[in-house]
Hints:
By secondary structure, the protein is α/β, with parallel strands linked by helices.
Amino acid sequence: MSTIDGLPPLREVIATHGLSAKKALGQNFLLDLNLTAKIARQAGDLTACDVLEVGPGPGGLTRGLLAEGARHVLAVEKDARAMAPLAEIAARYPGRLEVLNADALAIDPLAHLTPPIKVVANLPYNIGTELLVRWLTPVQWPPFWQSLTLMFQREVAERIVAQPGSKAYGRLAILAQWRCDARIVMGLPPEAFTPPPKVRSAVVHLTALPEPRFAASAATLQRLTATAFQQRRKMLRASLKGLHPEIGPLLESVGIKPTSRAEEIDVEHFCALARALDAEG
């Protein structure tokens, strides 16, 4: 399928507008409109939702989202070269696409979107994890979004859905699974992209829970997990000693052996430890 909307094929769009992918911007373009439409469908019914898309590039996924019926799409793109092709898509879908030439880390999406909101994006590799952590750790919950449908390097996707005891288990798994249901819904080979990355990619779908699974402060849990997994092979009594002078007894008070390592501790016990740290002041 070269086109889904009467607009030119993406290879032609890239050639016309000189949109060669820039490594510095973490760009790898997905040109198959069959695949971009399939990714859009992983987000579920879009007809009653506004959608935030980060890093649309030449607009392949943008076109998929609009073709699948998204009520309104906010596409945030740092690369000024993409403004012209995205403007052509906006003209094809009057009133349904807003494009911001901006850094996604510096904007307030709620100033441009009306709930319910879903986030669907082939995230630039260089900011993907930072954006995800921001979306998972707002002070208030539920967040501004209902679901996140995001493409990552396969390794990052596996870290999001990992279980305790596995090599991939870490901070991302805890922050994601604390407040969301998370699953990998698609895999993509390097050759699906231009230029082909050196790694495989995967799409993760995260659905926001009405309430976190366990009570905890987002800021404390984020600080705790970052510290614990920074030295993941160390026993927790050593890796966490900078967080509390009596970390050993505090660990024992919430049912964690001080000789345990971070990768062995489930979400419930990390949340219990976060609460204990806050209670200690």
